[in-house]
Amino acid sequence: MTVLEGSGKLFEWFSQKDKFNFDEDMGKLLPKAKKEERAAIKCALEEFEKMEVLKSTDINTERYWILNKKFDTFEQDLKISPKTGLLISQLINSFCEILEIEDEECDPRNITEQDINNLLLICYRFMDDKETDPSKN
């Protein structure tokens, strides 16, 4: 497991929980985790702490990582090239045309979070796998 993969697991974890403790929670996050998987998770926790997503503290001999603020309040800035913006808008707008949905059309000059969500919905529709669609959880 890489640190990036560990970060993905922790993103899922913190989307539903506010704290993480190795002793209490590692088995829930990754049942039967190998040492290298535990190390990847610990590195990811430390990266989140550097990004100020988490803070950590020791209580007695145990380390706890706590969300700095509610998970849903964290935002990311994304910069994309004009070509990528155009490709995103073409895909979304083609899909909107097929479904005859005009109010979800995408402006290639201003890609929004709604556009990214629409891309995800298009992907899940083509995957046709409800178990991998987090919106079904």
Describe this structure as you would to a colleague.
The chain has 137 residues and is mainly α. The mean pLDDT is 89. It is elongated, with a radius of gyration of 19 Å. Helices cover 50% and strands 11% of the residues. The chain has a three-stranded antiparallel sheet. The chain contains five helices and three strands, in the order H-E-H-H-E-E-H-H. It has two domains: 3-73, Winged helix-like DNA-binding domain superfamily/Winged helix DNA-binding domain (Arc Repressor Mutant, subunit A), CATH 1.10.10.10; 82-136, no CATH class. The protein starts with a helix and ends in a 10-residue tail after the last helix. Strand 2 (54-59) and strand 3 (62-67) form a beta hairpin.
In short:
The chain is mainly alpha-helical.
Based on the model shown, name its key terms.
Arc Repressor Mutant, subunit A, 50% helix, 137 residues, 2 domains, mainly alpha, elongated, 3-stranded antiparallel β-sheet
What count of helical segments does DSSP give? 5
How much is the average pLDDT? 89
CATH architecture of the largest domain: Orthogonal Bundle
Biggest sheet features: 3 strands, antiparallel
**What does the overall shape look like?**
elongated
Share in β-strands: 5-15%
For CATH, the homologous superfamily of the largest domain is named as Winged helix-like DNA-binding domain superfamily/Winged helix DNA-binding domain
Q: Distance between termini?
A: 25 Å
CATH topology of the largest domain: Arc Repressor Mutant, subunit A
Name the poorly predicted regions. Answer: none
Trace the largest sheet across and list its strands.
1-3-2
Structural Rg: 19 Å
> How would you classify the helix and strand content by structural class?
mainly alpha
What is the CATH class name of the largest domain?
Mainly Alpha
Strand elements, count: 3
Give the count of structural domains. Answer: 2
Secondary-structure element series: HEHHEEHH
